[in-house]
Each structure stands twice: as C-alpha cells, then as structure tokens.
Amino acid sequence: MKTFALAAAIVCGIASSAGAQDWRESPWGPEDELGAANHITPESVLEASKLIKTGKTYNLGIVVDSKTPAFSPRSMSITVLQPNQITTQGLGTNGMTYNDDIFMGWLGIGPQIDGLGHIGIKHEYYNGLQGAEVAKADGLAKLGLEKLPPMVTRGVVLDMTKHYGQEIITEGTAYTKEDIIAVAKAQGVELKKGDTVFFHSGWLNLLDGENQDHDRYVSVEPGLGITGAEYLAEIGVVAVGADTWGLEALPFENGTDGVFAVHQILIPKNGIYILENMDTRELVKDEAWEFMFVLGVTRMKGAVQMMINPTAIR
User: Fold this and answer.
1) pLDDT given at position 33
2) Which residue intervals of the chain are DSSP H helices?
3) Which tens digit of pLDDT belongs to each residue from 156-214?
4) What is the reported pTM?
5) Domain extents for the chain?
6) Closest alpha carbon to 164 in 200, 192, 130, 191
7) d(CA 169, CA 43)
8) Fewest CB within 10 angstroms: 138, 219, 226, 269, which?
C-alpha cells in the first residue's frame, strides 16, 4: 500500500509539474506570436459591428505631454523645428513654410498597449520564447507589435465605482472574479470570448479633477486582481484595459512580494494584451456598457509597447 501511495504521489507530482509548463505552449501552435488576437476573425468583427446603434464615437486615449505621470523612469518630450526656414522667408518662390516635430521618449507612456514581448517569467515569454531570442537592443526579434492585426472586437466597460460605492476607488483594491461577475450581472452584460474588457475606477480624476494628485496617481492604484485575471483568461478575452497606469492593484495583492503577477497571468501565460490609461469616463456616463472597439497600432518593427488612442463606437 505504501509503495502504491508513493507511486501515485510521484505520478501526481509529474502531472502537476507538466501542468505547470502548459503556459509555455500556445494553443495556436509553436510559431504563434499573436496570442489572444487569434480570437479576432471576420465573423467576430461582423458581430462587433452590430453593436453600433447611434454612431457615437469615444476617444479612449488620454492627452499626453511631458507632465503626464508615468512609470519611472519613463518620460517624453516633443521638439518642434522649422528645418531650413529660420533665416528665410520660406522655401521656393511661394514661401512654403512647415513645422516638423521630434519625439523623444518611451513608447510605454500615457495611453498605451503592452505587447506580448513586454512581460516574462524568469526571462521566458509568451509561447515559451526565451529572453535571448526575443529581446534585442534594436527591437524585439519575436513578439513585436508590428505583427498585431487591426484589433476590432466587442468592447465591454465595467463600472467598478458603482460596485464599490466610491467615486475614486481606494488604491490596493483588487477586483476579484466574484466582483467581475457581480458587476457584469448588474449591468446586464455577458463577458464573452474575444472581448476587450475595460475597468472604470475613477482613477483618472486624479489627473484633471477636483482631487488632482499626480504623485498618488502613479505610485498606487486599484485594479484587476489575480482571481479576476484568471477568470478573464478562462473566458478568452483578447485584451484588458483600465483607467489606471498599471491595470492591476497596487500595493500588490495580499501583501505578497510578487511583482505585477496579473501582468504575468495575462501576457506570457495567456497572450492577452493590456491597455493602460484608458479614458472610460464618457462610456460610463452614457452607460455604454458594450460597444465596438477599434485599435490600429503603429507598426514600428520590434516595438514592445505603443502609445495609442483606441476608439469605442456605440
């Protein structure tokens, strides 16, 4: 009996170990670099288009400048030049003048998408790709955002402020699976495979509202919790967004020393994209709980992240 129990324990241990490796294998095959974007199909796009009832559009990206709070050490600036015109009346006999701009900064600042090459687990990335084969100094060799197709999905926004009864949700609040289910039910929406799901916390009011506090905004935040992330991955969403700079709850959940564990669940383990600093206020004001979501990312080869301004259409 003891021998059988030992053998069973060994088998279970092997099975558990094998199960722990599953995240390294994409369900779309060993060459896959798109992750959950594979859920976007002509059929799903047509279904998303049926959500357009009024034609009203919403900018989801916030306005960004050199003062926008960002995850340290990220920063940005713009320099405007008038090449070869300063000492002239312009170019040609018609005096043509023009302005050009130089961008200097990080692509992961302000409203942004985190690509699949952004987050790893001990230098392993989505689909089991090793750090050395992914990250090159002049751009990602694998998982670059230039490979992402146009992102057109059903979008859903969940008003967490109403759920918690807070205009601005307290930092460190982690949205659980149960919270997400409750809010979706209260709003009469069903989360589905292929969705892009947004969370509204009121956090952006710290940038331009009466409670403006830039230091607080970028140092802590409410956000998606571990069980909530696992639930969304189980559903099979394409992307998860929030009106915060880092999506997940900070201080990190349960006082653990884990760092951005929700990012790890979504990106390397499930190929789910993350959208940060998304302005959900007008959607919530209009109770536009579901809509057509559209995002075309700048196709900069090897980019890890990108500043974005997605559109919601209802």
Assistant:
1) 98
2) 2-20, 42-49, 131-134, 160-164, 177-187, 205-208, 214-219, 226-235, 261-270, 281-285
3) 999 999 999 999 999 999 999 999 999 999 999 999 999 999 999 999 999 997 889 99
4) 0.91
5) 28-70+107-313, 74-105
6) 200
7) 37
8) 138
